[in-house]
Design a protein that fits this description.
By secondary structure, the protein is α+β, with helices and mostly antiparallel strands. The chain contains 16 helices and 22 strands. The relative contact order is 0.11.
Length: 649
C-alpha cells in the first residue's frame, strides 16, 4: 500500500456535514455545552420578556407597539423598528435550540422550541405567507418595502431554523411550514411578468434557500436563491420602483446610497466591500453557495476580488469587520481604529459563513485561515466563557468602560453567536464525492461518507492550545479517497506522518492543503504536528492607528493585554519587536486557557502632579507583560484591554 500527495483536488462541490454527523469535545465541546446548558435558556427568557411571542402567536391579542419606530434623517417618514425583524431573532433561538437539543436532550427546551414552532404554524396564512409583523402589526403591507423592512431576511432565518430543527430532532413541522412559505416566495418573486423582480435590503434569504434545497432535494429552492443573487443591483433599480409605489422619493433614504445594501451594482460588477457589514457577509455567503452549486466562475471571480479587498484592506487582525458604528459597516480602506471599532459580532459570524462557503469549490487556505481567525477571535469574543453574556461591538482597545451585556434593543448577536458555536462541527469538514477536507482542527468525531463508503474520522487534540493532532480513520472496508489537511499559514514547520511513515509537507501547489490520496484501511492514523509559538504581527503602515505597534498571536489565537494581569494604563507598556524569552501558563478560572508572558518595559506614570504636559522623557522600568486570548477578555471583571501594544524603538 502506497501513500502519495497529489497536486490538486478535482473540481467538484464540497458540502458541509449535517449537524448529526460531527460531535465535538475538548475546547469546542466546552463552548457548545455552555450554549446547551445556559445560553439557549437565556435567549428564550429574553425573547419572552421582550414580548416577542406576544407578536408572533395569533392565539394572543394583537399587542401594542413595544419599540418606537426609528425616524428618517428629515424626521418625516417612519423607517424601521426592531420589532419588524423579531421573527429572525426568534428563529435564531430555535436554531441554537436545535443544536443544543442534539448535543444534550432536554425535555423543557424541546417543549419550548416546539411551542414556538406551533406559533409560526398557526401564524401561517392559507397562501403560505408567514411574517408576524405584516400579518398582525401592519396587515395589508406585505412586500411593499423590501429595502427597509427585513421580510425576506426574516424568512431566511426561519428557513435556516427549520433545516436545523429537522436535522437535530427529525421533526418536520417547521420544515413543512417553511417549504410552503418558500413556495409562496417563489410564486411572488422571479423574472415572470406577474412576479416582483425584487430582493431583500438585508441579505439572508439567499444562503437560507441553498440550505433548504440541500435538505429537501428540491432544486426550485436553489433556483430561487440564484434569482435573488442575480437580481440584486440590476436596473431599473427595484428599490426605486417600490419607493415610488409607496408614494416616496427614492432619494429620501436614510442611508443615502444603495451601497448600504450592496445593491449599487449587479453582484458580478462589485469590486469593493461596502455598506452594512453583516448584510455584505450574508450576500457573499449566498453568492459563494451558488458559485459552488452551479460551478459559476463569474461569481467566484467576483468573490475573489471582494475577498482580497476585505482581507487586504478592511479587516481587523481579530477577524473583526465593519469599523464604523454610523453604518454598522465599512468606510475607507485601512480605516481600522481600535478603541472605536464597531466590529459587530454578527459581522464576524457572517465572515465565518462566507469563508466556509468559499471552500465549497475546493479547499483553499486563503479562506480556511480567515475562517479560523474570525471564528476563534472576532466571533467567539461575542460570547462570555460561561455562555451568559454577550458583546455587540468588539473593539481592540478598551479604557475599561466596555463590557458584555445581558441583552440588547437589537438582539441579533446573542442568538447568532450561539447558533454558530453550537454548530461549529459543521464548519470543520468539507465532503465531496471522493475527498474529505479538514478545514479546522479540534477534538471531535465525524461520521462522513466518501466514495459511497461510511468513514469515521476521529481527531484527538488539545488544539488551539497545542498543535499536536492525531486523526484516526475507521471504515468497514479499504477505500481509496483523498484526505486534505489544511496547513495554516501561521505554522512554519509542520510535520505529517501516516502509520508512522513521514510525508513531505509540500503545499505550494495545493492551495495550502496537504492532499493525501491512498487506499485507507480501518485504524489508519495520521499524525499532524503544527508547532505553535508566539508571533509578532505588524499592520500595514496605511493603518495609521497601528503604526509603531505590535499585535501578538499564538496558533489561531490573537492575544491582548488586560488590566486584570497588568494593571491600568496599558499604553505605558512597550514590548520588543524581537519578543525575547516567553513563558506560558494556564489561566485560573478560565478552563486552562493559555496565557503568554514576555519581557517588557513600562513608563513611569507617577510624578505628574496634575500637569498635562512636561518636557522631560518619562523613565522606563523593566516589567513582564502577560497576554491572554482576545476572545476571553472581560471575563474576569472590568478593566482596560489592548491588542496593539507599543513597540520599543
Amino acid at each position: 500500500m502506497t501513500t502519495r500527495t497529489i497536486s490538486a483536488v478535482a473540481p467538484t462541490t464540497f458540502r458541509p456535514p449535517r449537524i448529526p454527523q460531527v460531535e465535538v469535545s475538548g475546547f469546542w465541546g466546552r463552548h457548545v455545552d455552555a450554549v446547551a446548558d445556559r445560553t439557549v435558556a437565556i435567549l428564550y427568557d429574553r425573547c419572552l420578556a421582550a414580548g416577542m411571542f406576544d407578536q408572533i402567536d395569533p392565539a394572543r391579542p394583537v399587542p401594542e407597539m413595544r419599540l418606537p419606530f426609528h425616524r428618517r434623517s428629515n424626521g418625516v417618514h417612519d423607517t424601521v423598528t426592531a420589532q419588524m425583524f423579531w421573527d429572525s431573532d426568534v428563529a435564531k433561538v430555535i436554531e441554537a435550540g436545535a443544536y443544543a437539543l442534539y448535543r444534550r436532550p432536554n425535555a423543557d427546551t424541546e417543549a419550548k422550541m416546539d411551542g414556538i414552532i406551533d406559533m409560526f404554524a398557526r401564524l401561517q396564512q392559507p397562501d403560505g405567507y408567514c411574517n408576524s409583523w405584516y400579518i398582525r402589526m401592519q396587515p395589508g403591507k406585505r412586500w411593499t418595502n423590501l429595502r427597509d423592512c427585513h421580510e425576506l431576511y426574516c424568512a431566511g432565518h426561519l428557513i435556516e431554523a427549520a433545516v436545523a430543527y429537522h436535522q437535530a430532532t427529525g421533526k418536520r413541522k417547521l420544515l413543512d411550514v417553511m417549504c410552503r412559505y418558500a413556495d409562496h416566495i417563489a410564486a411572488t418573486f422571479g423574472p415572470g411578468p406577474d412576479q416582483k423582480a425584487g430582493y431583500c435590503g438585508h441579505e439572508e434569504i439567499e444562503l437560507a434557500l441553498v440550505r433548504l434545497a440541500r435538505e429537501t432535494g428540491e432544486q426550485r429552492y436553489m433556483e430561487l436563491a440564484r434569482f435573488f443573487v442575480d437580481a440584486r443591483g440590476q436596473q431599473p433599480h427595484y428599490f426605486d420602483i417600490e419607493a415610488r409605489a409607496r408614494g416616496e422619493d427614492p432619494l429620501d433614504y436614510v442611508h443615502h446610497t444603495p451601497e448600504y445594501t450592496q445593491a449599487h451594482l449587479p453582484v458580478r460588477q462589485q469590486t469593493k466591500v461596502v455598506g452594512h457589514a453583516v448584510r455584505a457577509m450574508y450576500l457573499y455567503s449566498g453568492m459563494a453557495d451558488i458559485a459552488a452549486e452551479y460551478a459559476d466562475d463569474s461569481l467566484t471571480k467576483a468573490l475573489e476580488v471582494l475577498w482580497d479587498d476585505l482581507t487586504g484592506k478592511q479587516m481587523y487582525v481579530t477577524g473583526g469587520i465593519g469599523s464604523s458604528a454610523k453604518n454598522e459597516g465599512f468606510t475607507q480602506h485601512y480605516d481600522l481604529p481600535n478603541d472605536t471599532a464597531y466590529a459587530e459580532t454578527c459581522a464576524s459570524v457572517g465572515l465565518v459563513f462566507w469563508a466556509s462557503r468559499m471552500l465549497g469549490r475546493r479547499p483553499d487556505r486563503r479562506y480556511a485561515d480567515i475562517l479560523e481567525q474570525a471564528l476563534y477571535n472576532g466571533a467567539l469574543a461575542g460570547l462570555s466563557a460561561d455562555g451568559s453574556r454577550f458583546f455587540y461591538e468588539n473593539p481592540l482597545e478598551s479604557h475599561g468602560d466596555h463590557h458584555r451585556w445581558n441583552w440588547h434593543r437589537c438582539p441579533c448577536c446573542p442568538p447568532n453567536i450561539a447558533r454558530l458555536v453550537a454548530s461549529v462541527g459543521t464548519y470543520m469538514y468539507g465532503v465531496a464525492d471522493n475527498s474529505i477536507a479538514v478545514h479546522l482542527y479540534g477534538d471531535s468525531v465525524a461520521r462522513l461518507e466518501v466514495a459511497s463508503t461510511p468513514v469515521t474520522l476521529t481527531q484527538n487534540t488539545e488544539y488551539p492550545w497545542d498543535g499536536a493532532i492525531r486523526l484516526t480513520v475507521n471504515l468497514a472496508q479499504p477505500t481509496r479517497f483523498t484526505l486534505s489537511l489544511r496547513i495554516p499559514a501561521w505554522c512554519d514547520a509542520p510535520s505529517v506522518s501516516v502509520g508512522g511513515e513521514a510525508i513531505a509537507v509540500d503545499v505550494a501547489e495545493n492551495l495550502g492543503y496537504l492532499d493525501i490520496e491512498r487506499e485507507w484501511r480501518d485504524g489508519d492514523v495520521v499524525a499532524l504536528t503544527l508547532p505553535m509559538h508566539l508571533i509578532s504581527r505588524q499592520a500595514n503602515p496605511k493603518v495609521r492607528q497601528d503604526i509603531g505597534r505590535i499585535a501578538l498571536s499564538r496558533g489561531p489565537l490573537i492575544y491582548c493585554l488586560e488590566e486584570a494581569d497588568n494593571g491600568n494604563q496599558l499604553n505605558a507598556i512597550t514590548i520588543g519587536r524581537k519578543l525575547g524569552e516567553t513563558s506560558t501558563a494556564p489561566i485560573r478560572d478560565l478552563h486552562g486557557a493559555i496565557s503568554v508572558s514576555i519581557p517588557a518595559l513600562r513608563e513611569d506614570t507617577s510624578g505628574w502632579n496634575g500637569q498635562l504636559y512636561r518636557a522631560d522623557i518619562p523613565m522606563q522600568r523593566t516589567a513582564t507583560a502577560r497576554f491572554v486570548p482576545y476572545h476571553l477578555w472581560d471575563n474576569r471583571g472590568p478593566g482596560e484591554m489592548l491588542v496593539w501594544v507599543r513597540a520599543q524603538s
